[in-house]
From TrEMBL:
Protein name from the UniProt record: Probable membrane transporter protein
Similarity field: Belongs to the 4-toluene sulfonate uptake permease (TSUP) (TC 2.A.102) family.
Keyword DNA-binding in annotation: no
Membrane topology of the entry: Multi-pass membrane protein
GO cellular component annotations of the record: plasma membrane
Length: 231
């Protein structure tokens, strides 16, 4: 259900899968983060491009990917060298950052430098925790509708593929992760199919607030789980 909702939001508002699903996956099985979300993101963002690819801001996507490459390498290093517990705390921190940034409403001008920096932050956060949406949502906040969805979709399609490649080289991708991704793929597909008819009826502002609430709930449970003795 969490993956279904995350996929629906990813298609409808441009991000949401990592923000909502990563804390829950970390609660159920920490080793699933970030690989499972990244595999699912490749399929979901491909569907977004099929639907809205004509509205893509190709130049903006290109500059964001310039930043994504070094960010991806930094994120892969965090996954390799951080034990499971600190990585769980990092997931919580990224959720809180995403929620605060979204609610605060910080909207930097989408200059070339800002887009590259956001791409780097997204690459590091997305590779380490699969939560790479908030920096791009902030810098591309002036985009709306199909343009936002297609530009975010193209960035996350290529970015998720880069992250998976880096994690595969570092030895962080295994059959256990891929089996779970395959198991959850139908839920993601249903979310994608429901996004278009349901998305037309969604109030974007309220939907984002609901997504923030769900993400915070998952992050809070994950934090409590880590703090409990013997966890």
């Amino acid at each position: 259900m969490v993956v279904l909702i995350g996929a629906l939001l990813q298609v409808a508002i441009g991000f949401g899968l990592g923000l909502i699903a990563a804390p829950v996956l970390a609660i159920v099985e920490p080793s699933l983060v970030p690989v499972v979300n990244l595999v699912l993101a490749v399929g979901i963002t491909s569907a977004v491009l099929v639907q809205d690819g004509a509205h893509l801001d190709l130049r903006g996507t290109g500059w964001a990917l310039v930043g994504r490459v070094p960010g991806t390498l930094a994120g892969a290093a965090l996954v390799v060298f951080l034990p499971a517990e600190p990585l769980a705390y990092l997931v919580v921190a990224m959720v809180v950052f995403g929620v605060v940034a979204t609610v605060w409403g910080f909207r930097p001008r989408p200059t070339r430098k800002a887009v590259v920096v956001a791409g780097a932050m997204s690459g590091m956060m997305g590779t380490a925790t699969s939560i790479g949406g908030p920096p791009m949502a902030m810098v591309w906040a002036q985009f709306a509708g199909p343009r936002l969805r297609s530009t975010m979709g193209a960035f996350f399609l290529v970015g998720s593929a880069l992250s998976l490649a880096a994690l595969t080289i570092s030895g962080s991708v295994d059959l256990h992760n891929l089996r779970y991704a395959l198991f959850l793929a139908p839920a993601a597909a249903v979310g994608v199919l429901l996004a278009r008819p349901i998305g037309k009826r969604l109030d974007v502002r309220r939907t984002r607030l609901a997504a923030m609430a769900l993400a915070l709930a998952g992050a809070t449970i994950l934090l409590v789980q880590q703090l409990l003795p013997g966890s």
